[in-house]
Amino acid sequence: MTARTAVRRSGPAAAAGLVAVLRAEWTKFRSVRGWVIGMIVAAILTVLVGVFASGNASIGCGSRPNGPQLTGKACLPYIPIGPGGEAVSDSFYFVRQPLAGNGSVTVRVTGLSGRYSDGNSQASAAGQGPAMTPGLVPWAKAGIIIKASTRQGSAYAAMMVTGSHGVRMQDNYTGDIAGLPGAVSAASPRWLRLTRSGDTVSGYDSADGRHWALVGTATLAGLPVTVQGGLFATSPQYLKIQPFFGGASIQSGASQATGIFDDVSLHGGWPAGRWAGLAIGGGNRADYPAQGGGYRQAGGQITVTGSGDIAPAVTGPGGGFPSSTIEQSLAGIFAGLIAVVVVAAMFVTTEYRRGLIRLTLAATPRRGRVLAAKAIVAGAVAFVAGLAASVLCVTLGVPRQRAEGLYILPVSGLTEARVFLGTAAMVGLAAVLAVALGSILRRSAAAVTAAVVVVVLPFLLAVAVLPDGIANWVLRLTPAAGFAIEQSIPHYSQVSTVYSAAGGQYPLPPWAGFGVLCAWTAAALGLAFVLLRRRDA
Amino acid sequence: MLAASPYNQVRTYNQDLDGNVEATISVARLRKRFGATTALDGMSFTVRPGHVTGFVGPNGAGKSTTMRVILGLDSPDDGTALVCGRPYASLPEPMRLLGSLLDAAALQPSRSARNHLLWLAHSQGLPASRVDAVLEEAGLQDVARRKAGGFSLGMRQRLGLAAAMLGDPQALMLDEPFNGLDPEGIAWMRGFLRSLAGQGRAVLVSSHLMSELQDTADHLVVVGRGRVVADTSVADLLAAASGDRVMLRTVRPAEAAAALARAGGSVAGADGDGDGGALIVTGLAAGDVVGALSRDGVPFSEVSGHRATLEQAYLELTRDQVDYRAQTAGEVPA
Questions:
Q1: Mean pLDDT of A358-374
Q2: What is the pTM of this model?
Q3: Residues in chain A closer than 8 A to B115 (CB atoms)
Q4: So what's the ipTM on this one?
């Protein structure tokens, strides 16, 4: 032990020491052509697989009556953009009148019913549309809304009863707060209230009309003085997902919901004094039934029927139109990762195979520094390869997908930067993990196998083989959780669609998944450090 | 042969060494076991500057293990190994103080000779010009940009020596540097090592063949079974091995034996048989042998002091070690 007692240095001297080792390891890396080529191959492989995977969509929409067979882009409806810049669904039946300045609207909801087509039924009669079964989809909605204008995508806040998620307050498409639980009925009505004051709209609910609870307050930036307020009903498409080994069978069909309101009371600036009906986004969505929306006013009761959704746009069968995300072009990352972890592991293990590690450690007896330098060099090279690959993938893949008629869900510049830099960082971390495994196992075959099994295999199993439940646990617990950093569109629990790894939806939020990969990498590096110091070289 | 280098950083280090400025390698009471095998069993010696110290012993005597312990690669179970009074691992840029060559094959085959030296230079904060300097010293300037994987063992030894010389160190430690060298390479290596010692550097060279160190080493550390058997100058070792034996050639061995016995000597054995054969005499110097024979009128044709070769001296010293190893090999518990 005595022979390895080191006098600790710190500050500039230690930093200079690390810089020297970094230079040495960088020289080592760049002077072996196979490794440099391996990293370039990793980037090329990523781009090839990504572009190939993104170019196989076949979109047609010939079911429109009296129209020619349409394909590709021609099938895309108008897709509104919400206040946050995200693509949204904004289709509903709106019974409205203007609200000038501040005011409030209060209603009692005594019923919510609906119908849906399960997609399998034959058309009931010529020109009558598909046969509908009575019933509610989980996110059928009816309630009150205050909206900046009747333009699709404009700002709003709403209080509603839903098919199976109780009372909710939703705003600006992505906001969703739970209110009173339970289904609404004549025996168990719900009172809803929205109060507008300047830019803020507060939502309240009550089970008896006397005791009110604040559900939430939404701030709608730039809300004009005169807004539209009133009642609404809408219902997203029916969706039945039956998972089976390696995939899922999906049945979908149009649906509509009818809300029954009474005791409508208005306070504040409602100058018109009467209701007017308007189908917002009517006819734009494939799932909007031809005989869809409308309202009926009889005595004190107003019945509103609508179809569509007021929600963020998502991919998958719940999206309502052929859509994709920027990260769909990154499908080749796993292929590039294989090349990256092979090179990174060999960067360490070939030194053991050749006995070169003894020269390395004789040159730098501070073994932790050697490990750190190797990790930094391999990680930085992999990061650059990953960044180049992901930018190229998206630059080449997104136009291809658009040309095929897919709508790419827009994301903010910040999110796009997170997808690119995060994917590159994930590739870099995988390289660091492989360096640690190489240092722990010291044999090329063992280290390469371990790195692929730990980093790439869980991802492939999760997206291609395992049933969703197990796949999600694999993507929470293994280093493959890091793939979550690629996800640009968050999981919206207020929208029903297929949320699965295969569809690019990860069980953990992006940074949490990335954190899991970080934790694995840190643990492996820690073990490698202890073993490197303890073992004879 | 070795150009004066501007990188005499050693002096800077020596100022930190609490007065212990001599470039030495010293190991004391090193013990190390690998499982059931005792590799080092109290290894102690010191390598002094200005000498080529031969580190000799049979294969498995612990030479390479000792060198790995000196470099901090293996940790001993007990004992200390110091370079210039400090543990090697505590030296910030250790190759500027102790250059070493453990294994000439330890290189990445697809990396060029120059890049192999370049990363080492970077790790010690040395400039690239130093790489070109040692490549020239080792005679490798023409193959500097070729992949080291294509080098012969002799060229790899030169590359390894160039690596050891990168930091212009005051001490060098080379494990079996003569392996794979052709006769010209051996002569070059011997001259190179002697010139390094001549410049005041401490040079430790291991070998399992004593003949390789003939005319190169001036001090010897002979080891066997993990410990030092002899730590001596080459001159003393030869004298001890030769002893006071005298070779006598005579046609009258019986009379000669009687005359020598009266003078206090004895005949230890015959070298050759019968008439004209040689006798080995002990207990008398050559001059005394001549005196005794002349006094008694015994004719003789030759009297000379018996000189052992370094190889014979070494075999004498290590015979026991080798025998012991051979006998105990079967006794090691499985």
A1: 96
A2: 0.84
A3: 27-28, 31
A4: 0.81
